[in-house]
Amino acid sequence: MSRLLHTSDWHLGASLYRHSREEDFDAVLAEIAAIARESEPDLIVHSGDLFHSFRPGARDLLRAMRALDELAGIAPTVVIAGNHDSPAYFEFLNLVSGPSWGRGLYFIDRFRPGREGGVLTFDACGGQRMRLAVMPFVHPNQFWQRSTPSATASADYAQGMRELQADLMQTLHDGYDPGRDVLLFAAHVYVAGAKPAKSERGVDTDDAFATAPGDLPVVSYAALGHIHAPQPVNGVPSAVTARYAGSPLQMDFGEHKDIKSVVVVDADPGRPVRALPRPLTSGRRLAYFEGTLDLLRADAHTFEGMFLKAAITDEEDGSLLTRKVAEIVPGAILVDAAPVREATAESVLTGDPAEEPDLPDAFLAYLTQSGLSETTAHSTAATFARLLGEMDDEEPSPVPAQELLRAALDNLWEKAS
Fold first, then answer.
1. Pairing between strand 221-225 and 181-188?
2. Is residue 207 in some structural domain?
3. For a tag on the chain, would you pick the N or C end, based on fewer CB atoms within 10 A?
4. Which family is annotated (predicted)?
5. CATH number at residue 39
């Protein structure tokens, strides 16, 4: 029997309303390593968003490498780049810490065809082999067609993803031994129908650029990243098990009820897998409270050691509210305390008050409020989010106008002659 440990979306470097999460990351990474030592997997897969930003700080790089080096000492460990990760950083990390150093650590920086590094093979227990197809985050702009220069069509994206996955599947089946091989797929992708945890950027979970669950490759197990809520994926091809491992920590208050986990997957060739989520309990939990000060006082003991966001219903003046709440719950880490006010007609943002909206979502809400059509608003917001995410990227995704200009320049002398 082969065994896989699936983890994802660490987002090292993320903070919570300017509160450091370093203590929580250290605790949960130690817990993941303990689960790996106890479960003794043949392979460990991290399905993307190792870091929270394209240019992680030195402390976050050190934290990542210490944790991954410990995992690689237990089993070969493969980390694919997510939309928050820099391909250039991953290329560098693979150069200085990858398989050429014999450490069993693999950083997959960008999509490669199956025969050019897109499929990896690992020995497992009982003479079995685990064959893993890897698909780091693929930006929709990669599938832009010059026939439609105004925008990247969702149909182009869906077809492009099917073609990339078909290439990986062809390589997976090259030399495939049904009595020995376990086929696996790791991808950082949004699958339609998955339930976001609310800490993802809204434009990253737009159905216009979603992969249909029925389009996922026919493998024993698909290890998915990108969605922070741990969950199985429904509607996949028969005999396929696909799961989001989710983030190991609650990333924002919209997740205060979520139970985080890693996934231990047992597989035998030609048989359905057993995918067992292992809950993660380390790291301080998030709590959202709405009610009166008296009710908060009665429940104060339940918030001990937690990050707390409080919405108080019986206070009009918020000038001293933070101090009052802090005195009631001295054992909590108070992130925010504010009186509950009725929504006004001028309100732009909607949604769970426990969420902290990010800039792309706020901009999308503004565009929608301004009267733009849904298609135009989402297209504009998606472009805005891409620009934000690629300000520090050494190799930004192509822009349609830029591609047209490049094509014209490439053909300039040929046409002149």
1. parallel
2. yes
3. C
4. Belongs to the SbcD family.
5. 3.60.21.10
